[in-house]
Please model this.
Amino acid sequence: MEKNFNVLILGSDFNAYYMARCYHELYKEKVNIIAKRAIGVVSYSKIVNFKEVPDFETKEGFIRALNEYASQRKEEIILLIGTSDELVRLIIENQEQIDKKYVHNYPSLEILNQVLVKDTFYQTFEGSELDIPKTYIYPCGQNAKLDEKRVEELMYPLIVKPGNNIEYHSHKFEGMYKVFKVFSREELGEVIHKIENSGYKSNLVIQEFIPGDDCALFDSAFYCGKNKKVQLITLAQIGLQERNPGGIGNCTVLANGFNEHGYDETIVEPLKKFMERIGYQGFAEFDLKYDNRTGKYKVLEINPRQARCSYYLAAGGHNLVQYLIDDLIYHKEKPCTIMKEKVALSFVPKSVIKKYVTSIPLREELLRLAKEHKLVNPLKYKADKSIRRRLYLVAKDMNYKKKYKTLSW
Model:
């Protein structure tokens, strides 16, 4: 496939690796990656050219590194792909300061703040097309008094999470979780105290807990073109999430085109209406949870990028990098497609699926797809083999077995 453009991926996590894999599947050549530091999944890879820039996640380091990169490229167009919230924000906030060779598809800063900053999201879109859990916003660091009545109305157990993830993760503390589940007023007070003492000063989201374990969760991925029209939608039932404190909320197992409550395309209709109404652009992921009390799918959050688990789109025939290239380079407009291909994704060994996926129908579906060779691990790519990488992935499988055995949520 002949091309007259360059692709640059920013980041070094699972997301960055599978976007590199998407590129390699298209062109059978290495892709360039820049990040603050390399982790094993990228540093041991033979399908990437990696450059480490220690101050890359600062405004100055980001602009300098991208402009230096552009000055070294002969291509007139560089497709820019971010793989984390921090990097997406840096792209959007600094697009006027980086070389004009760069093209990307991300929403405006206003829309980014509305969907990425969780407390803003819940307050802005309450009463919209989206079903959102009952929520109370608590302002940290302002000597605020907890509204006991509002909290009691939500009923325990409760979910507590930062409104501003980027700020939250810049204030590390012992016992830090991405999301807290609290069972009493005393426990709620302890969590708030810990977070405020860390130096975090933005809002906290205190929310009703929707009953159900990991299997009540769903992933709905979207691609919205530069013309702000939806081109691709998925709906996948999740089987497992990460078990380590910092990873809660990150999916490790899912099956697309399957729903034990009945696969119904009308579930995603309000999500599509919402995305086009607000004028969204680029990839996005809805985290949903099925509420068995009402039969509704509650929107927990929206990620303004492809998610950590989104490689299943490519496994189902919808290469994520290809969507960006067709849209931004070749200016192709595509009709809206709901991806119905039966395909599963898993970062964990099959033994973990057998033992820890609690839904029998979903577990059977995952194992059936595995038997039909329709279950994919984004990190295990036949074209990317080395002894160090093989050892790294074996160690990762062993670690997953240990985590699911010893940690619970």
